[in-house]
Design a protein that fits this description.
disordered C terminus; two-stranded antiparallel sheet
Length: about 270
């Protein structure tokens, strides 16, 4: 094999794991035509680098957090303001709310872009801020849009989940239930989980393979005690159209599991 055999074989393992469900080392070895000893050695090196993860309960291997960080680097360094900025600015003007675009960075949501309406509200989440992905609408929109195997690998070993208020999932089981409901609905909502008195609605942005790579969200004042379970469907429809627009600008295709945006409606923020 020309070039650097170890690198080529390691990349082949990554591509195979990224294409589907977690696999055993024996299956990887057979599918790639590699000796088992070589496969185990490569997996150990890839695990040390954080780009694959071993799932001990099933003795299988999956994509690791490091691979997600590399995968989202494209969005972090791409001229997003030129590509997505106009769409986000229109959304901010249309809704009168703060608008953000964020990506997963490990188990955190990293905000890459922010647009403010003509009359800004008091809430400010700056570009470069990181928040626990499981508490943010944007983070959950991306997590809900990942393949189940990728999501499990990303959250493996996360332990108890942090909370900023008295709301939000506090365990992996609770988060799984929230993500399943949001995947069925087609958009994510957080209400008072990041900051009391504010809510957010987010739709995923998708890559060329249809999987979530980022999310666009709007954040707005909302008081509701106890949590009222409002899903802000009208506002979500407006955000959804912007997410589809940005997806297409980035050369992606809407994910198969995400509902297409509904007809225009009056954005509401209660």
């Amino acid at each position: 094999m020309a070039g650097v055999p170890g690198l080529r074989r390691g990349l082949a393992i990554l591509r195979l794991l990224a294409a589907g469900e977690p696999l055993t080392a024996a299956t990887l070895s057979a599918r790639l035509g590699l000796p088992r000893s070589t496969t185990y050695h490569l997996l150990a090196e890839l695990e040390a680098a954080g780009v694959v993860a071993h799932l001990p309960d099933t003795a299988r291997w999956a994509i690791g957090i490091g691979a997600f960080e590399v995968g989202t680097a494209y969005l972090r360094h791409h001229p997003l303001d030129e590509v997505a900025g106009p769409s986000l600015r229109r959304l901010a003007h249309r809704t009168g709310h703060d608008v953000h675009l964020g990506v997963l960075d490990g188990r955190e949501l990293l905000y890459l872009l922010r647009e403010r309406p003509p009359r800004p509200q008091t809430l400010v989440t700056a570009v470069g801020v990181r928040l626990p992905a499981h508490l943010t609408a944007s983070g959950r929109a991306v997590l809900a849009g990942l393949a189940p195997a990728q999501r499990r690998a990303l959250l493996a070993g996360a332990g108890p989940l942090t909370r900023r208020t008295d709301r939000g999932p506090a365990s992996a089981r609770a988060l799984s239930a929230v993500l399943a409901a949001e995947a069925r609905r087609g958009w994510a909502v957080e209400d008072g989980e990041v900051s009391r008195g504010y809510a957010s609605v987010a739709h995923a942005i998708h890559g060329a393979d249809g999987e979530a790579v980022a999310a666009v969200s709007v954040t707005f004042p909302h008081q509701c005690a106890p949590a009222c379970g409002t899903d802000f469907a009208d506002l979500a429809a407006v955000v959804g159209r912007t997410a589809v627009e940005v997806t297409r600008h980035l050369g992606g295709v809407p994910g198969a599991g995400v509902r297409p945006p509904g007809p225009p409606g009056t954005a509401r923020s209660r």
